[in-house]
Write a structure and sequence with these properties.
BirA Bifunctional Protein, domain 2, Rossmann fold, 2 domains, 5-stranded mixed beta barrel, 5-stranded mixed sheet, 21 strands, elongated, binds adenosine-5'-triphosphate, binds magnesium ion
Length: 414
């Protein structure tokens, strides 16, 4: 894509009221637009990043049997009354409104009830189980504080998968698989080295749930890590009893701030029983379905990648989620020569953003390129042409080299 076709522009300053680094950089780069605290529009560059994160999550969910669907955002009151989650005294983040005829409705702040209410129409026998539907969705939460940019939205995008199993054993088997799928997601988006699976509080049906927590000073949570054992625990479960249970000593734990980028939870019968979500087992008896939930905050993950991997010059995208693989800069009067390089890259299906702007200084183009954080930078200038090639540099390196475009393309293909 040509930069002159991109309607967004970079900014030197971020809005004065934006305190979170992730949102500051994303706004300055033209990735997102701030509507109000906790509410952001995803602009074209940001959309490309989000789509890449979404496809990684999709691949990992499909690999463990997930089937994608799309649940509605508008939800009727009666469904949520079944589990006593309609009341504002119980759930304080609802955005509610009314239809013209006075019917009360709410905008989904989560999905369990919606899924149980749907799935009960399709499950009758043990032969219908297990099943693993999921969706990507805009979630609405009237959060009290929203100062962490993309990491705490009042409107945000997530993936939620729900597992419907015949019994605990069938559930546990999937739950274990989901841990690996989650690990793969965080590895693939470049956060593997910073992300721990933590023990968090469970519920009636399991001692623990698990969270995926990315270590960052910008995090709102505290986790405790035993590096030697590779075990991490959430603050809210840090009791002597839990430490004994996990075979950990308090003295070996390091406290770190972290961002919850996902969680998995055994729900048991909590959301199946209120909906009469049962099936007939092989003896013909009615048994409630055993459920689990598996969430990932997609927009929070995008903010976390920026928060954790950026440097003083701007964003540093891992290649897997970068909006483009290559940022091609034409300097001086060399638009035509750069155009040839652009065509060559396109011919080889390499995703490239072409800074074809004229009347913009080299310094400005470099600064913009660093801010945008595209992994590979190619410069076409007097100097590079004099040396018979293009100047190539990685975003996360300070060394540049002169190469022919052919050898560079070969390098990309390898
Ligand atoms: P938190 O403790 O941070 O408020 P939560 O426990 O409310 O999170 P869940 O309801 O389990 O989170 O949602 C699943 C995932 O959605 C979380 O792991 C997180 O990644 C993401 N998420 C939750 N709240 C927000 C938010 N306000 N903005 C962006 N992402 C969010
Ligand atoms: Mg919350």
């Amino acid at each position: 894509m040509r930069q002159t076709q991109l309607f967004t522009k970079t900014k030197k300053e971020s809005p004065a009221d934006e305190v979170a680094k992730n949102a500051q950089l994303l706004i300055r780069g033209g990735y997102i637009h701030k509507e109000m605290a906790g509410v952001y529009t995803i602009l074209p560059l940001g959309y490309r990043v989000m789509e890449k994160i979404v496809s990684i999550i999709k691949e990992e969910m499909n690999a463990i049997g997930g089937i994608q669907m799309k649940t509605s955002a508008i939800q009727t009151k009666d469904v949520w009354e079944k589990t006593n989650r309609w009341s504002d005294d119980v759930v304080d983040v609802w955005f509610k409104t009314q239809l013209k005829n006075g019917t009360e409705v709410g905008l989904s702040f989560t999905n369990e009830e919606a899924y149980s209410n749907i799935v009960k129409n399709f499950v009758s026998s043990y032969k219908d189980l297990p099943l693993y539907p999921y969706d990507f969705k805009t979630i609405f939460r009237n959060e009290t504080r929203s100062k962490s940019g993309m990491m705490r939205g009042r409107e945000f995008y997530w993936k939620a998968l729900y597992s419907f199993s015949a019994d605990k054993e069938q559930h546990d088997e999937f739950y274990e698989k989901s841990k690996q799928a989650y690990r793969n997601v965080y590895d693939r988006v470049g956060l593997g080295d910073y992300t721990y699976m933590t023990f968090a509080s469970g519920g009636t049906f399991s001692k623990y749930s698990h969270e995926f927590q990315t270590v960052s000073e910008a995090g709102e949570d505290l986790i405790y890590i035993d590096e030697a054992k590779g075990i991490a625990i959430n603050e809210e479960v840090m009791t002597d009893e839990v430490l004994t249970d996990l075979g950990i000593e308090r003295a070996n734990l390091v406290e770190k701030k972290a961002i919850e980028v996902g969680n998995i939870f055994s729900l048991g019968f909590k959301f199946s029983e209120p909906f009469g979500l049962t099936y007939k087992n092989s003896e013909g008896a009615d048994v409630p379905v055993y459920m689990g939930s598996y969430g990932i905050g997609v927009t929070r993950l995008m903010g976390t990648i920026v928060e954790v991997l950026s440097d003083e010059k701007g964003i540093v995208w891992p290649e897997s989620v970068a909006p483009f693989k290559v940022h091609l800069l034409a300097l001086g009067e060399n638009i035509e020569q750069a155009q040839n390089v652009y065509n060559e890259l396109l011919k080889h299906n390499i995703e490239v953003l072409f800074d074809d702007r004229t009347g913009v200084s080299a310094g400005e183009k470099f600064a913009d390129s660093d801010l945008l954080g595209i992994p590979h930078r190619i410069v076409v200038s007097e100097r590079s042409l004099a040396q018979g090639g293009v100047e190539y540099k990685r975003r996360n390196s300070s060394e540049s080299t002169i190469l022919s475009i052919e050898s560079l393309i070969q390098q990309f293909a390898a």
